[in-house]
Specification:
By secondary structure, this protein is of the alpha+beta class. It contains six helices and twelve strands. Helix 1 (about 5-30) runs antiparallel to helix 3 (about 155-170) and helix 3 runs antiparallel to helix 5 (about 190-215).
């Protein structure tokens, strides 16, 4: 098999990997949803946000929601009076306050935080128990249709750039290595070990690019 044929096959494989990685990254990191504590609930419709089959939020009506989790089911209603909102949960708990957009917290009239979106209760091997307060912020976001994404689009752009640089380095290690410094040498050419190390570096760049393109970096961070 000739050198040009090998390069063409490698390039075709690289393009195929990119074609698969980019949609996967978009699907898992750039879809809208809300955070319920540390967990992300994807928006699957205007009335449903879902983490998995056992954990999701349904909007029953404009001001009523159904909360399904590993520990059971709850209903909650949202009411507004003047500038304050009240969440009434079916377990008897009630919280009144306002949503602070700057800090993304639910606060009472005096400005004290009463709904913090990262509080979750876990005991041993028991199912994760989500406090009622934790739901206040994501329910506000759902009510006003102000979801967020798990990732940021420019991470995928960074991944594409790293991936392309890695592929070019693997295909043309000598040219990449001497790209800006060839003028210093009469015969700018790497040794066999130098070519190997340059290609290894290119492969590492490709792998990092795939991690960013496919959204794995966001999943690891979460």
């Amino acid at each position: 098999m000739g050198e040009n044929t090998k390069k063409k096959l490698l390039l075709m494989g690289a393009v195929l990997i990119a074609v698969v990685s980019l949609p996967v990254g978009w699907y898992f990191t750039l879809r809208l949803g809300v955070y319920v504590g540390d967990d992300f609930y994807y928006k699957v419709s205007d009335r449903k946000y879902k983490k998995n089959r056992s954990n999701y939020i349904e909007r029953i009506s404009d001001n009523e929601f159904r909360l399904i989790s590993d520990t059971g089911e709850k209903a909650v209603s949202l009411k507004f009076h003047n500038d304050l909102a009240t969440f009434d949960f079916s377990d008897g708990k009630s919280y009144e306050g306002y949503f602070d957009e700057a800090t993304e917290t639910f606060r009472d009239e005096e400005g004290m935080i009463i709904g913090w979106d990262s509080i979750q209760i876990v005991g041993g091997n028991e199912p994760k128990r989500i406090s009622d307060r934790t739901y206040c912020v994501p329910l506000f976001q759902i009510y006003f249709d102000e979801g967020e994404t798990r990732g940021i689009w420019y991470l995928q752009v960074l991944g594409i750039i790293l991936y392309i640089l890695g592929i070019v380095t693997v295909l043309y290690p000598n040219e990449v290595h001497f790209f800006l410094i060839s003028w210093k040498y009469d015969y700018p050419e790497l040794s066999e070990s130098g070519l190997l190390m340059e290609r290894v570096g290119g492969i590492v760049e490709c792998l990092i690019g795939i991690v960013f393109m496919s959204g794995l970096v966001v999943l690891f961070m979460n």
